[in-house]
Amino acid sequence: MLPAAVDSEQGDPFARWGSRPPFRGLPPTARLWLPVVVSFFVSVPATIFLLWRFSPGFPVAPIALALAALGPLALLAARRFPGPVASVVTAAAVADLLLPPQGGPPYLAFAFAVVSGILRGARMWVYASVAVGWVAALTLGSLLGVGWHPVRIAVTTAGIALLLAFAERFRERRERFAAARRKAFEHRQSVEQAERMRIARELHDVLAHSLSQIHVQAGVGLHLMDAQPERAREALSNIKSSSKTALDEVRGVLAFLRADSVSGSSQSGV
After folding, report:
1. DSSP string computed for 163-176
2. CA distance 41 to 171
3. Where is each Signal transduction histidine kinase subgroup 3 dimerisation and phosphoacceptor domain found (predicted)?
4. Alpha-carbon distance 245 to 249, whole Å?
5. CA 95 to CA 83: how far, in whole Å?
6. What is the CATH number of domain 190-268?
7. Taking the model in full, what pTM does it have?
8. At what angle do helices 28-54 and 60-74 cross, to 10 degrees?
C-alpha cells in the first residue's frame, strides 16, 4: 500500500513554528516608515524647542532645523541606497553636533542609518562614513573651539562602537537564521522529491501488476468464451476485481498528492 504523509517536523526544524519563523518582524512598509517617523519626532520638535529656548541667531536656526529633518527624511531612501544614506546621515549628524545649541536631542537617524546600512550589505560605506565623520567632528570641533569634555568624547566613541557591534551582531544572527531556513527548505525539497519518486515507483508496480493480471484474464476469457463460458465469466470477474483495485490505488495516490499540494500552498500563504 502507498504511504501516509511525510513527517514535516522531522525534515523541517521550523515546522513547529508554522511556515514562518517565530519572529517575523514588521511589514515592509512599517520597517521603512518607523525609523523615519521615530527619528523625525525625536529630532525636529526638540530642535524647535531648543531654538526657541536659546534663540540662536540667523542663519543658525534654519540650518539646525534643516539638519534635524534631513537625517530622518534621508532614511526613506535607505532601502535602495543604504550606503549613500549612511554617508549623508553621518554628515548631517556631524554638522548637527557642531552647530549650536550644544547638547541637543540625540541624532537618532544616525543609529538607524548605521544599522540599516550594515544589515543591507553596505558595511564599507558605514564604517568609512562613521570613521571619517567622527574624525572630522573631533577635528572641526577643536578648530571651532567647541568645548567637549574628554569624558563626553570617550562616551560618544564607546556609544558608536557599541552601535556598530550591535548592528554586526544583528546581521550575523539574521544571516545564520536565513542560512538555517535555506538549509531546511532544501532538505524538505529533497525529502519531498524522494517521496514522490517512491510513490511513482509503487504506483508503477501496482498498475503494472494489475494490468498484467487484466491482460492475462482477458486472454483467458477470450479463449474460453465459447467452450467454457463459466470460466470466461470467472475471468471477466477477475478483470473487474483487478481493475477496481488498480483504480482504488490510483485514486488513493491522487488524493494523497492533492492533499499534500493543498497543505503546502496553505502553509506558503500564511
Report:
1. HHHHHHHHHHHHHH
2. 27
3. 195-259
4. 6
5. 19
6. 1.20.5
7. 0.63
8. 170
